[in-house]
Write a structure and sequence with these properties.
The protein is of the alpha+beta class and about 220 residues long. About 55% of the residues lie in helices and about 10% in strands. The protein contains nine helices and four strands. It has a four-stranded mixed beta sheet. A hairpin with a 2-residue loop joins strand 3 and strand 4. Helix 6 packs across helix 7. The N and C termini lie far apart (about 40 Å).
Length: about 220
């Protein structure tokens, strides 16, 4: 049985993640390397584990989270679909069970707000974990005078927390934004589609989604 540990230590997978991120560096994107995929895997695990899903489902969603952005190696456009195809090839090579591959590939292929939908439990958890990763350390450009809107928004977020309430009815994304660098309107300008997808993903998991910025509930 292929485990998350097996995926993390596979040298080919590490190469694909690193090279995919190098392509995004060249395009001026924020960080999509091991910090991002590691956090997405951890938050995906947190979501399904907290909601009481099986240990195998929790492990599969971690694998999906770790692999979800490898399609950027091919091209940023439609990277979720190309990443799903790459993940299929990798996992099939490693001898993973077809049913497990299917779950992971479906989640990866549906994680992006352009074409993705929360068509499964794993896809829903991956969407929420991926779209909630907004943080200052993702910004590579250190010249604040030349920030684009994505730099401003990520740099402005000094704290981000994704939490499920004790009764397991709500999932909250709580952000603290330093408005010297970006405004709440900046956030919505680039992330409204992502937050809409998060709301749908939460509903798939039987939850309500709430976005709280600087202690004010906005969604």
């Amino acid at each position: 049985m292929i485990t998350f540990h097996d995926i993390k230590r596979d040298p080919q997978i590490r190469t694909y993640i690193q090279k995919a991120d190098e392509s995004l560096i060249a395009l001026g994107f924020t960080e999509h390397s091991f910090a991002h995929v590691g956090l997405v895997a951890a938050n995906s695990k947190y979501i399904l584990e907290t909601l009481g899903y099986s240990p195998r489902e929790v492990e599969l969603v971690q694998i999906a989270g770790y692999l979800h952005d490898i399609g950027n190696l091919v091209n940023r456009i439609d990277h979720s679909q190309s990443g799903a195809v790459m993940a299929f090839r990798i996992l099939d090579r490693m001898g993973m069970d077809a049913a497990d591959i299917a779950e992971i590939v479906t989640a990866i292929g549906n994680h992006d707000e352009g074409t993705g939908k929360p068509v499964s439990t794993l896809a829903a958890a991956l969407i929420l974990a991926d779209k909630s990763d907004v943080r200052r350390s993702r910004v590579r450009n250190r010249d604040t005078a030349n920030f684009d809107i994505h730099d401003r928004v990520n740099y402005s977020v000094t704290k981000a927390e994704l939490k499920i309430n004790e009764s397991k009815t709500l999932i909250k994304l709580k952000l603290h934004i330093d408005t010297r660098y970006g405004s709440v309107m900046d956030y919505f300008e680039i992330f409204l589609g992502r937050m809409t997808l998060c709301r749908k993903a939460a509903e798939t998991l039987g939850l309500q989604f709430k976005l709280i910025i600087n202690e004010q509930q906005l969604i």
